[in-house]
Amino acid sequence: MVPLRLTFGNTLHREMLRGLGALWTPTLWVLDRNGREFRRETGYLEPSDLHSVLSEGVALALVSGGRAPEAEQVLDRAIGHYDAVHGARNGSWAASLRYWRGAVGYLRSGDHVALDAWWDQVRLIDGNGPWARRCV
Amino acid sequence: MPITWHDDPVAALAEAAASRRAVLVEVWKPG
């Protein structure tokens, strides 16, 4: 990733800050190489949470650029990393990473069975939470 | 490894386009 730090009060950054709708710090965005936003997150993130957010953003940008197999690899690594840190599939990022892993795989293959398998994991992890409720 | 942050949006987007990489943007408030 190419890291860019924007500062409130810097006149050279004003236009991009306005375009992003920056309101609060810390906030981070993942943009694709054309500057399109694919992920936004506000508030402090622990390292494993940050890794999950960045991985989701990069994966979605890759999919949009026609690079779904790479996106799947990014999400597979992120799921493995998150599970290694947090144990047996705990935490909200465990659910969101799998939600997107199912979606990205489906966009590549059109395989409903594989999508359902990923989303079954989301339901198992998230119960009646917001990610599980999206899996319809 | 420490991150070397860009502070020029145009240069950052140009580098991303050339290298086919995504951009991580962080907003910073001085002080």
Explained architecture:
The complex is a heterodimer of chains A (136) and B (31). By secondary structure, chain A is an alpha+beta fold. Chain A has a domain at 45-134: Alpha Horseshoe (Serine Threonine Protein Phosphatase 5, Tetratricopeptide repeat). Chain A contains six helices and three strands. Chain A has helices at residues 14-20, 47-64, 68-86, 92-109, 112-126, 130-134, and strands at residues 2-7, 27-31, 37-42. Chain A has a two-stranded antiparallel ribbon with strand order 2-3. In chain A, a hairpin with a 5-residue loop joins strand 2 and strand 3. The longest helix of chain A has 19 residues, at 68-86. The mean pLDDT of chain A is 94. Chain B has 31 residues and is of the alpha+beta class. Chain B has one domain (1-31). In chain B, 35% of the residues lie in helices and 19% in strands. Chain B has one helix at residues 9-19; one strand at 23-28. The longest helix of chain B has 11 residues, at 9-19. Chain B is globular. The model of chain B has no long low-confidence stretch (mean pLDDT 90). Classes of the chains: A alpha+beta (136), B alpha+beta (31). Chain A binds chain B through residues 1-10, 12-13, 16-17, 20, 22, 24-35, 38, 54, 57-58, 61-62, 65, and chain B through 3-9, 12-13, 15-17, 19-30.
Main sheet specs of chain B: none
What would you call the quaternary organization? Answer: heterodimer
- Average pLDDT taken over every residue of chain A: 94
Strand-residue fraction of chain A?
5-15%
* Unreliable spans of chain B: none
Biggest sheet of chain A: strands side by side, in what order?
Answer: 2-3
Task: Summarize this structure briefly.
The complex is a heterodimer of chains A (136) and B (31). Chain A is 60% helix and 12% strand.
Write the topology of this structure.
The complex is a heterodimer of chains A (136) and B (31).
Chain A: E1 2-7, H1 14-20, E2 27-31, E3 37-42, H2 47-64, H3 68-86, H4 92-109, H5 112-126, H6 130-134
Antiparallel strand pairs in A: 2-3
Helix pairs in contact in A: 2-3, 2-4, 3-4, 4-5
Chain B: H1 9-19, E1 23-28
